[in-house]
Amino acid sequence: MSAVTSRPLSGIRALVVGLGSIGATHVRVLEGLGATVEAVSKRESAEGTTHASIATALAGGGFDYCVVASATSDHAADVKALAEGGFAGSLLVEKPLSARSGEIPSEMPFERVGVGYNLRFHPAVGWLRRQLEEQSALVVDMAAQSFLPEWRPGRDHRETASGSRARGGGVLRDLSHELDLMLWLFGEPRQAKALGGNLGELGIDAETAACAVLRLERAPLATLRLSYLDRLPERRVRVTTASDTLEADLLSGECRTSSAGERYEIDWTKTYANLHLAMLGPDPATVCTLGEGLRVVTCIEELEGAWAG
Predict the structure, then answer these.
(1) pTM, whole model, 2 decimals?
(2) How far apart are CA 252 and CA 277, in angstroms?
(3) 154: number of Cβ within 10 Å
């Protein structure tokens, strides 16, 4: 937590549901910000207070903030348990919001609801947004491609939620950060075509690659490429406008136009810290809203339907 020098969340009592890799990250970040953190998990933890269920955790009362970081397939049940248990604070649900549309209602009894798309807080995305304030997109290309077996060292990728369709895995859901960015930056899809499927030999049952071509509200032509198969990682956004080409590399932090360039230090911890600060602060405008999160899930299903048809 070296990027965060103050403890602005002192006095906040937070509950993190799920202690997988992303849940553990949220615990560390929130503690670094000064919050008191408890967790709900089936696995034992040597750190802090861990509860066996949401009901048990809520029996103690007094939580201001909750982060649902369980498997995507469990999000809907966990959100329902929080509502039924009387939690009424701010709720952040990890991406994607749910495995299927209709699982989570569009209205919930919480103070604020957000979805954990922390790439919105990436400095290269901030640079791109500033460039687009003065230019309109003609062609957009987004890519998020890497090799799934290398994601979590020491863990068999075949046993993770990423590789399990039943648990909400597959590139469209797992890498939905890029789809969220596309809709956030360039507006609603007007038309979409897609191809994808279980390619390669990763030994999982979820889709390992997908490509989509879309016409968006503020971009006549956009392409999206997602893959679990690439041994040369890529996470990039390239935008062609009438007067220039803009490129933001989210892995290196390099941002460039045809005539200039900048490089930003990438601190992934800080993207999560800023997400939590926005969720609990006076201006949550950058946070993915409940409505936007629901739209991403619907769009995922539309893309699946496009290649199934």
Answers:
(1) 0.94
(2) 24
(3) 4
